[in-house]
Amino acid sequence: MTTPQPSRAEGTRSEILRAAARLFRDRGYQATTLRDIAAIVNMKAGSIYYHFDSKDEILAEVLDLGIERIHHGVRDALAALPPTAPAVEAIELAIRMHLEVLLEYGDFTSANIRVYGQIPESARRRNDPVRQAYADFWTALLTRARREGAVRRDIGVKMLRLLLVGSLNWTVEWYRPGRGPIEGIAGDVAKLYFEGVLTPEARAAWLRRRARPSTAAVRSVPAPRAASRPAPLRASSAGKPS
Fold first, then answer.
1. CA 58 to CA 38: how far, in whole Å?
2. What one-character DSSP code corresponds to residue 7?
3. DSSP state of 177
4. Cβ neighbourhood burial of 14 (10 Å; 0-12, 13-18, 19+)
5. Cβ neighbours around 190 below 10 Å, total
6. pLDDT tens digits, one per residue of 125-168
7. What is the DSSP letter of 80?
8. Among 6, 71, 156, 239, which is most buried by a count of CB atoms within 10 Å?
9. Which pLDDT belongs to residue 181?
């Protein structure tokens, strides 16, 4: 069965979005113009209006695609796991798929991360449901792991999600193909979160230190010094106090 080829208009639309994502990532939203985007795809600025109504519409699609592609990639990968697969296995696969899709479409995700704080409030409100849907996906996955007894109950699920997904997203800022395969990085991330960075001996020592009373709490407060008495007056040569 052959895969249907995108139409010429769809191909042009995709080129515009890729160019916009790259420019938003490198220059920011405010500094990027439709003329800049058109120059990359070798068209006149006015021709963009055949595909998009405004720069804001282009921005909205770039932001949505940056998250939706990752969300769909992770969701589809996890759907292929056996129903009895433990949550820890699902998390490990989600980490790897998140990184693979993230780095394949890095311009879109990086643009989302870099420009989100500088875009109009209306654009943020439009993108928020897409962002929240992916956050809810991870929250449900981590909550399931806790329910299965795999995640400690003294660590907040929201905090764990923010740290984990945030660290995954930041790889677009430093990853280069020469730094090793994505599978290796995903394995290191999973090992970091599942096992931690301390050796068993160091972890045991750290736990012992945490169990002790705080040094600051038991530190003795120095006793106040006794007030010094004023020196007695001395008589002057004239017989009067000096």
1. 12
2. P
3. G
4. middle
5. 18
6. 999 999 999 999 999 999 999 999 999 888 899 999 999 999 99
7. T
8. 71
9. 86
Q: Which two tokens stand for residue 100?
A: 């693979």
Cα–Cα distance list, 146 to 91, 143, 151, 156, 160 (Å): 12, 5, 4, 10, 11
Domains of the chain are 55-210 (1.10.357.10)
Which pLDDT does position 236 carry in this prediction?
Answer: 43
pLDDT bucket at 239, cuts 50 / 70 / 90 = very low
DSSP state of 152: -
Q: Which residues contact 218 (CB under 8 A, 6 or more apart)?
A: none
Predicted TM-score (pTM) of this structure:
0.78
- The tokens for 185 are 């990085």
DSSP string, 199-230: -HHHHHHHHHHHHSPPHHHHPPPPPPPPPPPP
